[in-house]
């Protein structure tokens, strides 16, 4: 029987995959994905039919996966991190529903980039947190601003995806101004680039100094809450236990 | 050399572990954890020294792990889901800092319960989202209310941990009233109990009907955003692509 599994491969190297994700790749006839992610899992898909596509071809990639499954193949659609967090899960389901596809679909969760970045920083997310993408390619900028502002007022720890884009270099500085309005200037900030991948880099700083750092689209910025503190190489938001 | 690894074992069965987590367990001399989680990974730790403790012994569990590492042992401190999301990472670091422990500590991320629940529901988190725990054991209830209210006003998809407690049965109904003030009554809601474990159950409903459902501490409730929709057994929040 044919199927499509949307496979979350985790943030980086193949050791961050779950056994379930690895099994799905192994059981599939064909693996479909964006170049970067396919390269990360190369050792696991040797000998498989692979269909690689570029960054902005997401809809086309889903159509292709559905077409192949329609021909009776078992298809893994690869997604970086967790497929449900700015990944391929939603889009595949939307394209499948629109086309009336009858294929069996399963979403296999993975370690999301935000959890990976948090682990590298120590434990910044230990209380309630919000996840916001600064990419206004698909969401109006005013909506993003409103979310940042209210999340900061609610004292959420805030994890920011897609903080730096060459097309929209001003987005992070506008986001920073909003955060500075509602969070203290010395709020701990962690900046993790290429979490758990080759070339990983980590910086720990405070909110008022964030503009001094370079960030790009493979960076996650974690902005602490009121109780978050820095100690050595760790950022910790206490859960509230008496220690 | 001794170390402590805080090992995220994912939401459920051992197939949800990453290879890195499994390797840490394999390499350790002793495994420390809460009964439920130890039972979930039993096949992976056969023959290991295991120290099991009850639910409210978190601080003691961390002290024990540090004491064992201080004696030169390699210690895995097991945490359900991701150790950085209401898990053991923060507490271990706090206890280690307080005691001036020199042990090498690493946090190994896992698939968090919220990502697992989302995968089961389809793709409800595809836009910005907030994660809130209703447990007021460690956080004042007023803070939780404020976070829920502002997150709902910001149109975040909201994932709720610890929605139902026998000690605090009123928390969910108070949270529900707040959400009803700012989200539409027909907002899609997914209720996942024991995500990815034996006895898993899933319900899909709308916000105004949430009080009709039983939830407990092993349930995650996902409340959609304005654009979230239900189709068959899926809840989808469109990312915004033109499909």
Automatic annotation (TrEMBL), chains A, B:
Any Pfam family the entry gives: TP_methylase
Domain of life: Bacteria
Tetrapyrrole methylase domain span: 6-210
GO BP annotations, alphabetical order: cobalamin biosynthetic process; methylation
Top EC category: transferase
Signal peptide: none
Alphabetical UniProt keywords: Cobalamin biosynthesis, Methyltransferase, S-adenosyl-L-methionine, Transferase
CDD domains: Precorrin_3B_C17_MT
Biological or metabolic pathway of the protein: Cofactor biosynthesis; adenosylcobalamin biosynthesis
GO molecular function: precorrin-3B C17-methyltransferase activity
Assigned EC number: 2.1.1.131
Protein name: Precorrin-3 methyltransferase
Originating organism: Thermosediminibacter oceani (strain ATCC BAA-1034 / DSM 16646 / JW/IW-1228P)
């Amino acid at each position: 029987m044919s199927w499509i599994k949307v496979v979350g491969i985790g943030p980086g190297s193949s050791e961050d995959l779950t056994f379930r994700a690895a099994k799905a790749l192994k059981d599939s006839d064909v693996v479909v994905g964006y170049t970067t992610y396919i390269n990360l899992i190369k050792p696991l898909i040797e000998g498989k039919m692979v269909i690689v596509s570029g960054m902005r071809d997401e809809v086309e990639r889903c159509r292709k996966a559905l077409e192949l499954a329609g021909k009776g193949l078992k298809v893994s659609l690869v997604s970086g991190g967790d497929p449900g967090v700015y990944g391929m899960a939603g889009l595949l389901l939307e394209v499948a529903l629109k086309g009336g596809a009858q294929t069996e679909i399963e979403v296999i969760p993975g370690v999301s980039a935000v959890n990976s970045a948090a682990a590298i920083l120590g434990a910044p997310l230990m209380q309630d947190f919000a996840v916001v993408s600064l990419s206004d390619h698909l969401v109006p900028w005013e909506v993003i601003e409103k979310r940042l502002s209210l999340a900061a007022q609610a004292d959420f720890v805030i994890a920011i995806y897609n903080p730096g884009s060459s097309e929209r270099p001003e987005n992070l500085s506008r986001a920073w101004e909003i955060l500075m309005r509602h969070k203290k200037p010395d709020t701990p900030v962690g900046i993790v680039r290429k979490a758990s991948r080759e070339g990983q880099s980590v910086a720990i700083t405070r909110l008022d100094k964030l503009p001094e750092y370079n960030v790009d689209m493979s960076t996650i910025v974690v902005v602490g809450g009121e109780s978050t503190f820095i100690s050595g190489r760790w950022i910790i938001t206490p859960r509230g236990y008496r220690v």
